[in-house]
């Protein structure tokens, strides 16, 4: 079988299948972000134009406990992960969620895949379904794990007629799809994890996720702020082909306030413009999360929207007298790219890889596959889509007192605060925030130690501008009741496969 895309989901799927089917499986996996390095395949570096992703992701024990032990051991080496978030319904055997850098996940998985050369062939090249080698005649499975852009420029676009048209209307307001633009700030925070969690869950403007303080501070932008995202050439002329549309990464330089795009050599404009409202708001976010300005290391932007997919499994090539049918599967972000605020994208991706690997193991009889073999996998994918997208939607919109939903970015954008704000208004906002934080602290106290006191919070918040306090109030707290409850368990449909190898 072929796996297109060697990100965390593609590699996990290949390794899982290898561990379940052993010598019966031959997997070829493609990724253009890899390079040959003697007898091994490695990740390309910045010098080769591959800016490694730097986000910290939270993975839930419901999913990581289903990975082979050798992968768990490789992922969770001491110092490589932290336990920042509280346990919840996705915590199994009392094990809480774990924070890991995505680059570490990718490194660990590729290292393991290199060790399985007998059954996993790593091809450092883009997979092209249209090329003659795309879907060879004798091939049972094509797993498409190309991330969220596969429907615009990858194999999902090529095979769209088999998987059907995605529907944007469900994640729209007044007929317009809701799209968030999030500024991703790589930072080192001086706050304790407990303080960072409390400050994160009590508003929807900023989100800090880190491993021992090192991580990403994400800032949800209003439409006006998103319009301010711009870069310029070194001579000051505008350069429109950068952060305005792409997820370019700007690294700190030795010059204060100058962040340079590693790809285009351009400079991130907001900090260089005295009147930039976006930059003023960004500095407030750094202050809220205890980040010294010199500890802001790089800046990027993410564009997040969601679609509903009609199906995830399809026959791509019919059987012929000489070869079996080829079945195609959408996994990971290709299947279900969700808003990352509640932290479930990779978790859903891992669950999708676990479901398909178990399904293939259970159904392989040495005969061609047929539609019914994938009944349970398709049901698991539908459950994941429903659960994870419903939750993520609650992190994009809020209902007002009349039950009318509005985009959270617009609630923030509408917070008009006069330059000379009456002290009474500032105090009222401060009290509302403290009340909200007190309520969350009560709920979290059993699961997180060292949550900050009212006195600490009051002193900390008093360093912020009135407009920031107002934005935090208006952005609303995390809807932990609406987004909480039962989680998808792959075991319901596809229990742990027995260890014996099939024919
Ligand atoms: C800031 C941020 C924070 C996040 N936080 C969390 C979190 O806390 N918890 C969580 O669960 N998730 C989180 N996520 C989401 C998570 O990062 C993604 O869900 C996850 O990376 C998806 O993995 P994937 O393998 O499906 O896709 P990707 O990671 O996008 O990998 C796709 C791979 O396919 C390759 N590829 C693409 N096209 C081709 C082709 N034609 N041929 C060959 N290879 C190809 C690419 O090079 C890439 O390596 C976060 C995301 C962001 C941006």
What does this structure look like?
This protein is an alpha+beta fold. It folds into two domains: 2-171 and 306-395, FAD/NAD(P)-binding domain (3-Layer(bba) Sandwich), CATH 3.50.50; 178-304, no CATH class. 33% of the residues lie in helices and 19% in strands. The chain has helices spanning 8-21, 61-64, 69-75, 102-115, 150-153, 155-158, 160-163, 193-201, 223-228, 277-288, 332-335, 345-363, 375-393, 408-413, 423-444, 454-461, 466-475; strands at 2-4, 27-30, 34-37, 40-43, 56-59, 81-82, 98-101, 120-123, 141-144, 172-173, 176-177, 180-188, 206-211, 214-220, 231-232, 250-252, 259-261, 267-268, 296-304, 313-317, 326-330, 397-399, 405-407. The strands form seven sheets. It has a six-stranded mixed β-sheet with strand order 8-2-1-9-21-20. Strand 1, helix 1 and strand 2 (27-30) form a beta-alpha-beta unit. Helix 12 runs antiparallel to helix 13 (375-393), helix 15 (423-444) packs across helix 16 (454-461) and helix 15 crosses helix 17 (466-475). It starts with a strand and ends in a 28-residue tail after the last helix. The structure holds flavin-adenine dinucleotide. The site of flavin-adenine dinucleotide (FAD) has 36 residues, from helix 1, strand 5, strand 14, helix 11 and helix 12. Flavin-adenine dinucleotide (FAD) binds next to helix 1, strand 5, strand 14, helix 11 and helix 12.
